Amino acid sequence: MNVSQLADQLRRDHLFMKDVTRWEVIPARSARTAPFPSCMDERLKPALEKRGIYELYIHQARSLEATARGEDVTVVTPTASGKTMCYNLPVLSEILKDEDSRALYLFPTKALSADQVSELYDMIEEMGVDIKTYTYDGDTPAAARKAIRQAGHIVVTNPDMLHSGILPHHTKWVKLFENLRYIVIDEIHTYRGVFGSNLANVLRRLLRLCEFYGSCPRFILCSATIANPQELAETLIGRPVTLIDENGAPMGERHFVFYNPPVVNRQLGIRQGAIPVTRTITSMLLKNGIQSITFARSRLTVEVLTRYLKDLVRDPLGNAGRVRGYRGGYLPGERREIERGLRSGQVDAVVSTNALELGIDIGALDACVMCGYPGTIASAWQQAGRAGRRQGTSIVFFVASSAAIDQYIVNHPDYLLHQSPENALLNPDNLYVLLSHFKCAAFELPFEDGDRFGNAPGTEELLGYLSEEGIVRHVDGKYHWSAEDFPASEISLRSASSENFIIVDITDAAHHRVVGEMDRFTAPMLLHENAIYMHEGKQYQVEKLDFDACKAFIRSVDVGYYTDADLNINLSLLDIEKEEPFAGTASAALGEIKVTALVTMFKKIKFDTHENLGFGHVRLPETDMHTTAMWWTLPDALAEKLSGDRLKNGMMGVANLLRIVCPLYLMCAPQDVAVVYQVRSPITDKPTVILYDNCPGGIGLAQKAFSMRELLLEKALQVAEDCPCSYGCPSCVGPVGEVGEDGKRTAIRLLKELTK
Amino acid sequence: MNLREKLRAVGGNGGGQKAAAGEVFTDCRHFAVYRPEEEFPGARELTAETLRMMSDREIPERLDPRRILYLDTETTGLGGSGTVAFLVGMGFLTDRGFEVHQFLMRDYPEEPFLLKHVANGLGKFDVLCTFNGTTFDVPLLESRFLMNRMDRSCLEMPHIDLLHLCRRLWKLRLGRCNLGRLEEIILGKPRTDDLPGSEVPQRYFTYLKTGQMSLLDDILKHNAQDIASLCVLLNHMADLYLHPEKIRFSEDVYSMGRALERMNRTENARHCYRLARKGRMSAPAGAALAMSYRRAGEREEAAAVWREMIREKRGGVTPYVELAKYEEHIRRDARTALEWTEQALMLISEPALRESGTVQESKNELQYRRQRLMRKLKELEKDGIHDGDQGREGAAPAEGRDKQGRSDPPV
């Protein structure tokens, strides 16, 4: 059966349709094209025509025209719309006209750069011209580096390498910096939060050096669909950009199916799990020979689903290989093999985390199954975009879990279908981030009196501080780096910590092998001793976690359960920035806090039934984070009227409601903010609900929440009042089992008092 | 909290520093050190020919040893554009002895002056000699010239990096080859109360903060000593190249052979290998000697060395294998080749010879060779042709290659 036939059959299946909350058909869209613009170098034409391209899609043509006018541009394009041409054509055009010209390409990951470069090679080869394109990253052999620095017309790298490998050694890259015409940054929607704040500062440093070398490069930025591509781009590069967002690429018909698993326990509001439903849908696709991708939210779910699906097709011919898992932590070679398998059709089903959301070339697939809401509208469309060819029908299933946000989406499909996607927020002036890069900048080129660092505030204070610390020396109007350190090595762009944990399989005593890696913050959750670690559906038990050496040693096992760790969070106050009373004697405040995270225990959960089989202790050091937070403090009078337990349950309910509401109104991913409640908070000494930015230094979410402090409470109240459950369910204040019989009532009462 | 307070909360706090205001910088500080020529034996006799044995750089035809510049820098860090060479020392031979001129930047604004002196200095010489200068000092100075928008072409001159030359000669015996170890072990002059290089940057920063010039005495001494050592080391090495028989350690003389071979000095290299045959390095030296003959097409001489090694019971299974190859492909004597192969197989089975995982590999290879040779012999018998009557190698191109696609190294 092909996709259209399958869709028809499903629509006649009443049993299936009774749980479908919406079946949206997105009609096919035809191409909108424009002739080759005159600013495009003539030599590109035959090369394009050889590939069957006689006209450009309008967004490609617009990009060429705008860059020719000398504008910085941001192109917004969905998956598979010929995005790379939007930057390859202007760049190649420029180099053809002036062979001294140089361009720098930045991709968020190595895998992506490898992919895009191969397309560029093809174009250059077809034209038969001498344009040298090199990838410069951690894998580039030392012998090749010198040639790249001298001769590379197009240098492809990633922000991390630019930050630590190129900028601090800029004197070796004279040719590049002197002649830099274009800076291409792809997938800019990935540069939000810490990563984005870091990149914005890396670009400040880059532009500062360009000025030193007398070049003035233009930017071409590409983004997937987000709410604020222009704002994001302008914050990243610190100057205005031209937005190009008319997409001219054609698209086949698409079905978008919202499926809410049936309720199995009405009183407790418990639904059938999303994993078994996803398993059923994906199995159906697999049996019908429809190539599909399934997205799961956690690495664990990916492994569980992969195992189920592999079992379904496993046979002596090795057909289990038709189903593959894919997630961060697999080694690069393994990932490339899976990507190739998808393109060639040897892999029929892949189960992935959001790792495959990015523009890695896996070709277009027929179907996509989302096991749970990926957290943002932008991600959901990125994932859905993996299914959908330029011609032919494709289908997307969204399977809701019982998580509140999933329930909200599946019951309000219009939110996903018609609401504009999230803002990508970043804060280049986050003090941690800014200070670190400011040091790097001072190392790279001495600041002079009156200099500024891009549009960053407080250059003078920063320089004054660094002088006081003896890190720079102010003499004769210049601030010279005067420390032994190499400041770029002290920052990792992607997280607060640069160290990754290596995962070593010691099953074969004679032959230890590295099977993967994991970041420092996730490691305590998934790699604590006795954790069951899953890799490609195989189970391993962690025998030893060497925290100092950043190594986990695992051994292959076969047990009927998996493990899930509990994270303990402690907060302490560093500084209060603002405090505002409201609703009588309640107050809201904005400030800085320290968050201490500690994993103390884990649960063992049985496969299939998901029963709890027991627990174990974890002994690991705690991790610290300084961040920005805002909090609501309840008035004493209100707290005194409630017994301890009722107050606690009511506050738990309020916190749960805010967890649902905040990501929606702050337009961020749920994991970007944390909401906790404390009956007697060490911060205020009173009952308090605290919201904080879930990354060191914060990216501005707490500030935004503070400005919406009353609205957020109103919306939380609305969710609770609109929910049809009587005593609480996972879609509002939380299940009765957690918040107690009076939890919902108390939460509503608290919120009413606070929004009076 | 204001921004400054926040910055303090984010970072730590250390001692402040402020340069004296209103100071006018007109030049950097210059120091000169003179050493008597006796401390540099042979330095005046150094010739271009000797240097060419050691290095593949373009050495000027009529080299005047007084036109070699020995250079070393002291820096504020380990590299990157924020690292500065605050002291550059330049040493050279004069009619009066050995002179070291040191240029010190007393504060950052003096850097352009220092660089000007360096550029002037470099312009007066034909050859540059450093220790690890190709990867460190020269790129660092290049970077400094660039950062000060000054011409850096003065650095483009023949450059002898002693670190590379020393590694070729002594790494086998010494392992790490830093200047300190070389002075102690090779020159027999261990340094006392020397300031460790790793403490140099911090010492300089302390000086900047306090202005106490005396803090720099140790650095100046250290730098001058380093430069003098460069000259002593280069000439010591030149002496050894001219008289390899003076070398006491067979590792070193064997290493010199390898180094000379790299410079295409085949005859000198063979001389070293023969010298090294007498000591601990007999087996590798023998193998290197034989391989040198083989590469030159002198197969008979190579075979003679292999046979000698077998007589001395040195070199393990290699001589047998090489002789088998020689008999099979050159002499076309399959029967003798088979004999050597059988002997090799017998030898490799002795447990005492079990060295590593590669043993199994060579065993497999030998077995393939034996099978091939036996097949050849059988065919020869069938055709009634006697050994050695076959045509040249070209007549049977597939012969040198077995089923696995393996082949002997090119003849």
Main sheet: strand order of chain A: 1-11-18-17-14-16-15
* Largest interface by Cβ-Cβ < 8 Å: A-B, 40 and 40 residues
User: How large is the count of helical segments of chain A?
Assistant: 26
CATH topology of the largest domain in chain A: Rossmann fold
Distance between the termini of chain B: 79 Å
Q: How many domains comprise the coordinates of chain A? A: 5
The CATH architecture classification of the largest domain in chain B is: 2-Layer Sandwich
Q: Main sheet of chain A?
A: 7 strands, mixed
Q: Sheet with the most strands of chain B?
A: 6 strands, mixed
* CATH class group of the largest domain in chain A: Alpha Beta
Word description of this protein:
The complex is a heterodimer of chains A (756) and B (411). Chain A is globular and about 75 Å long. Chain A is an alpha/beta fold. Chain A is built from 26 helices and 32 strands. In chain A, strand 22 and strand 23 form a beta hairpin. In chain A, helix 24 packs antiparallel against helix 26 (743-754). In chain A, 36% of the residues lie in helices and 25% in strands. Chain A has five domains: 3-27 and 251-418, P-loop containing nucleotide triphosphate hydrolases (Rossmann fold, 3-Layer(aba) Sandwich), CATH 3.40.50; 33-244, P-loop containing nucleotide triphosphate hydrolases (Rossmann fold, 3-Layer(aba) Sandwich), CATH 3.40.50.300; 431-490; 500-559, no CATH class; 567-754, no CATH class. In chain A, the strands form seven sheets. Chain A has a seven-stranded mixed β-sheet with strand order 1-11-18-17-14-16-15, sandwiched between helices. A seven-stranded parallel β-sheet of chain A has the order 6-7-5-8-9-4-10, sandwiched between helices. In chain A, strands 27, 28, 29, 30, 31 and 32 form a six-stranded antiparallel β-sheet that branches. By secondary structure, chain B is of the alpha/beta class. Chain B folds into three domains: 26-242, Nucleotidyltransferase, domain 5, CATH 3.30.420; 247-315, Tetratricopeptide repeat domain (Serine Threonine Protein Phosphatase 5, Tetratricopeptide repeat); 328-384 and 401-411, no CATH class. In chain B, 49% of the residues lie in helices and 10% in strands. Chain B has helices at 3-10, 48-54, 111-123, 137-147, 162-174, 179-186, 200-210, 217-242, 250-262, 266-276, 282-295, 299-311, 318-330, 334-349, 358-383; strands at 29-35, 68-75, 85-94, 97-104, 127-130, 159-161. Chain B has a six-stranded mixed β-sheet. In chain B, strand 5, helix 4 and strand 6 (159-161) form a beta-alpha-beta unit. The model of chain B is unreliable at 12-18 and 387-407 (pLDDT under 50). The interface between A and B is large, with 40 and 40 residues.
